[in-house]
Amino acid sequence: MYHKLTATPETCQWGYFDNALEPALTIRSGDVVAMECLTHHAGEAPDLMMDDGVREVYENIDKNDRGPGPHIVTGPIAVVGAEPGDVLECRFLQAEPRLPYGVNFQANWGLLYGPVRAPLGHATTTDLESHQHVVVYEADWQQGTAKGLFQYAYPYADESPYPGTFIEPHTVARQSALRGVSVPLRPHMGTAGVAPAQSGRIHTVPPGEFGGNVDNRSFVPGTRMFYPVQVPSALFWAGDTHFAEGDGEISGTAIEGHLNVMLQFVLHKNLRIRTPLLETDTEVMVHGFHENLDEAVRIAAAETVYEMGRRWGLSQRESYSLLSVAGDLRVTQVVNGVKGAHFVLSKSVVREMR
Amino acid sequence: MYHKLTATPETCQWGYFDNALEPALTIRSGDVVAMECLTHHAGEAPDLMMDDGVREVYENIDKNDRGPGPHIVTGPIAVVGAEPGDVLECRFLQAEPRLPYGVNFQANWGLLYGPVRAPLGHATTTDLESHQHVVVYEADWQQGTAKGLFQYAYPYADESPYPGTFIEPHTVARQSALRGVSVPLRPHMGTAGVAPAQSGRIHTVPPGEFGGNVDNRSFVPGTRMFYPVQVPSALFWAGDTHFAEGDGEISGTAIEGHLNVMLQFVLHKNLRIRTPLLETDTEVMVHGFHENLDEAVRIAAAETVYEMGRRWGLSQRESYSLLSVAGDLRVTQVVNGVKGAHFVLSKSVVREMR
C-alpha cells in the first residue's frame, strides 16, 4: 500500500524523539511511504530554502517546543506487528530535492573548531578556530552535482537563539565560495531510525542502536538500512536530509537540504542484528557508535564479525582475518557527540562460496 | 638510471631504522630502483615462503640483532642532494610476488584481542580474545585475488621467542580456512619512508612524519607517496610488503608476503608537506598519526586543509567545507601503537576550477 506523509507542524517534531507520541501514520510491512523531510538549516538561507510548507513548520512549531536537539524529524510511522527484537528494513527507493539549495554549516562542534596543533607544533587551521561559518550550495539534480554559491560568517559566536533562527540576507556579507568546484550529490537521510526504548524526549544528536543521527552518506536511493526495533510498532522517524556528505562530516554538517523521499518498509521477525546495518547491491556496512572513536571502531568490528557469521557461516577467526585483509574501516562522523565508525565489506569476496 | 637492490643480510635491517647506517645504494633524483622487500612473517609458513635468498636473511641476521620492531626493511637508499625540508616522491611502478603465499597474523596487538563488550552487554567475539592465530593465503597474480589456504592456532601465547621464529608445519594443526573466499590483491609496502631525524635504532612499528609503517593499502603500483625529508640524503627504506589489506588492518597484520618492487624517486626542493601524502590518478590522501584515533583524524583533517590551500589556492573555510561534504575520512590502521587516519579527496571535485 502507498501512503503520503507531508511535513507539517503536526507531523514534525523539532529536536527530539518521544516513543509516547501518537503515530502520524500507521503502515504494514511492505508498504511504501512518500515522505517529506526538512532540514533545520533553512534559516541560514531563508530566501532560497523556504516555500509555504517549510515556512509553516518553521513559524508554527513553538520556539520553546524545539530541542533538546536541532533536527526536524517527520513521523512517527507505526508498523503493525513490530515488536522489540524484530528488525525493520527501510528500503530507500527515491529522493527528490524540494528546493535545490543546501547549507554546509561550520559549527562550533566541528572537528577543527578550536586550536589544532599540527605535527610541527604550530596551528595549521587558525582561520577555523574562532567562529561559525556558512557555505550555501546549489544542487543540479540532472548533473548530479552541487556547486558553491556563497559563504558568510555566522553572526552568532556560540549558540544561535533557537534552532531554526533566520539569518536574513541583508544582515550578513555574502561572498562567493568554491567557484568551479563540483561536489557529487549523494542524497541521504542524516537522521532516520526507530524510536529509542528510553521514554521522554530523546535528544536527536547522538546516534545509537536505534539508528537516529547515523549520518552515513552511503544511505542513498537503491540501498536499505536495517534497524533493530526497540519498542512496539517500531515508530520510524526520518529527517535532517542531506544532499551530499563526506565520511567524517567534519565541519559538523553535510550539505543540508530538504528532500522528498520514497521509502518501503519491511518487517523481519527472524533477523538478529544489534546495531544498524546498511546493505547496498555490492556491500554490507555495519555501524559502531561510541563517544570515543577508538571504541566505536572496536564495536563496529566486533558486530561485523558477528554479522559475517550469521550471514555466511564463517567462524570468528575467518571473519576477523577477512576483515583485516579485505574490509574497510571508515569514519561515519566525528561530530555527533557519540561518534560513528562503519566497516565496509564487499560482497564480492564471498561470491564463490558454496 | 636503473639500479638493483637485492635483499641480503647486509642490505636488510631487522626491526629498526638508524640514520647513521651507511647507504646500501646511492641514487639521483629520477633514478629507478628494482628492490627486493621481504616480509617478517615467512617463519609462519616456512615450507611455502622461503627460497635461498629469504632463508639467508632469516638465518644470517643474528637473532640478537633483531628489534626493537619486528619488520625486515631493505636499505637505506641515499638520494644525492636531499636535505631536510625537501620532499621525496616515491613512484610505485611495479610489484611482483617473490613467492605466491602470504600470512595474515591475528596478533595480541590486534583490535579484537581481549574482551570486547558489545552493545547488548555481552561479548560478540569471545573466540578471538585469548590467543594468536595464523591464516595462510595463496595469491593468484593473474586473477588478482588471494584465497584462504589453511589456518592454525599460533603456538606462542604472547611473544614469540624472536622476530622471524619458524613454526614448522608438523608442530601445528593446519586446517582449511575461508574456502571459496576471494580477496582482491592490493600489493603495497606496509613500511616505507625516509629516515627519522632521531638518532639510534628507531622502532619500525609506529609510523610518523617520515612515513615508516604507514600501512596504507592504497599505496599500490601506479600511485606515488610523498615524504618530508628529515635527514641529509633522505635515506629511504622499504619492507614489510603486503599482498592485500583492508583499511584498519584490524587483526594487526595484512596478507604479509615478499614483493619485488620497482620504484622511481623524485626529489622536490619546493614542496612543503608535513606528513606523508599519497597521490593516485584520481585522489589525494593525507595522513595523520596519533596514539589516539580521535587526534589522528584531527591531524589528518588539518593537514588536508593545508594541502588544499597549497595545491588549489582554496581558503581554509572553503577547504573545510569541501572536506565535510566531499572528502572521506578513513582509518588507515589501528594496530601500530601510533594509529593512522587518512583523508581521501577526489581530484574530480576541483576539475572545473579555473
Radius of gyration of chain A, in Å, reads 20 Å
Considering DSSP H and I runs of 4 or more, what fraction of the residues of chain A is helical?
A: 10-25%
Give the end-to-end Cα distance of chain A, rounded to a whole number of Å: 37 Å
User: What is the residue-mean pLDDT of chain A, rounded to a whole number?
Assistant: 95
Taken from the alpha-carbon principal axes, the silhouette of chain A is globular
Name the chain pair whose interface involves the most residues: A-B, 84 and 85 residues
Q: What is the spatial order of strands in the main beta sheet of chain A?
A: 1-5-18-7-15-19-20-22-21
The proportion of strand residues of chain A reads 35-45%
Assign the CATH topology of the largest domain in chain A: Jelly Rolls
Which structural class matches the secondary elements of chain A? mainly beta
The profile of the biggest β sheet of chain A is: 9 strands, mixed
Q: Give the number of domains of chain A.
A: 3
- Model regions low in confidence, pLDDT < 50 over at least 5 residues of chain A: none
Number of helices of chain A: 3
CATH homologous group name of the largest domain in chain A: Acetamidase/Formamidase-like domains
Question: Would you list the SSEs of chain A in sequence order as H and E?
Answer: EEEEEHEEEEEEEEEEEEEEEHHEE
CATH class of the largest domain in chain A: Mainly Beta
Provide the CATH architecture of the largest domain in chain A.
Answer: Sandwich
- Kindly state the number of beta strands of chain A: 22
Features:
homodimer, about 350 residues, mainly beta, Jelly Rolls, Endonuclease I-creI, 3 domains, nine-stranded mixed beta sheet, seven-stranded mixed beta sheet, 3 helices, 22 strands, about 10% helix, about 35% strand
